[in-house]
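Hey, resending since the last one bounced:
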Amino acid sequence: MEEKVSTSHREDMIQKAELLKALAHPIRLCIMENLVRDGKKNVTEIISCMDASQSNISQHLGKLRDLKLVKDEKQGNLVYYSCVSEEVRALIKHLFGGKE
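The structure tokens again:
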């Protein structure tokens, strides 16, 4: 007999799928791996991700910020980004290893 999936479980699945979709782009995955590994970084420090342009990195950071996976913090003329999602942090560490 098939078990019915609860509404909260279904909502959790949708949320997890959205998280995975956000990380499914190679540039966003690279950005998050950098932020988890190194802490906060500005756009210039992240440019090496997949040889992407500054505007492209900024667009992806905007999407990650909108999804509340990163936060931004202005310091002088620079904006620094950091990972705020413990789920992402755990997933990145699982995928790439890294500091505990």
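The mean pLDDT is 92.

Sorry for the duplicate.
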